[in-house]
Specification:
mainly beta, 184 residues, 2 domains, five-stranded antiparallel sheet, single chain
Length: 184
């Protein structure tokens, strides 16, 4: 859908774009910050949220003997298309940044990607690590940090994968800096 149409615009399209259930033009206009006239919504788009996702270096075969790490997100883009994560432990055959879903997926060596999501839609971030085999490491800690605040964490179990996740509703026009970390 994207921007609201310039012709044949109706309350239903405005409600969808704003993710607002009201049938009142006054309420919808106040929510969008525009005057209460249908013409003010022609070509309108709720500002998307921008997500910059960073993963620290992972997948290093050292004394810890772990296999891989990956960071990914699921949400809805500004045009109402689904952004789907690839979560599938052990199912990846590539260790290059951005995988097969550029902008929503990081794996193996660290890196950064940026994507836009629809404001007011749910975003779920996943940080997966594993499997961990017996080795020198005795403690491995994974975390998700959003705008400098830790929001999820966990300690992997030897011989298995560990996934942590965090879900939030994107704020229109906001910028989110998400870090998926592995410390050992």
């Amino acid at each position: 859908m994207g921007y609201l149409p310039t012709t044949n615009l109706g309350i239903s399209a405005i409600k969808t774009e704003l993710v607002n259930g009201s049938n009142s033009l006054n309420t919808l206009a106040a929510d969008a910050g525009v005057g209460a006239a249908m013409s003010n919504f022609r070509g309108y788009r709720l500002p998307p949220a921008t997500i910059t996702m960073t993963q620290n270096a992972g997948g290093i075969w050292d004394g810890c003997n772990f296999h891989d790490t990956w960071c990914e997100l699921s949400s809805t883009d500004p045009d109402f298309n689904t952004i789907q994560a690839f979560y599938s432990p052990g199912g990846f055959t590539t260790n290059t940044e951005r995988g097969n879903n550029e902008g929503t997926f990081l794996t193996f060596g660290g890196g950064t990607v940026t994507t836009s999501v629809h404001g007011r839609y749910s975003v779920t971030v996943y940080n997966t690590f594993g499997p961990v085999y017996a080795g020198v490491c005795t403690y491995i800690y994974i975390s998700i940090i959003v705008n400098a605040a830790e929001v999820a964490s966990g300690v992997p179990v030897y011989g298995d994968y560990k996934t942590i996740s965090y879900t939030f509703t994107a704020t229109p026009g906001a910028n989110y800096n998400i870090e998926c970390n592995v410390n050992y």
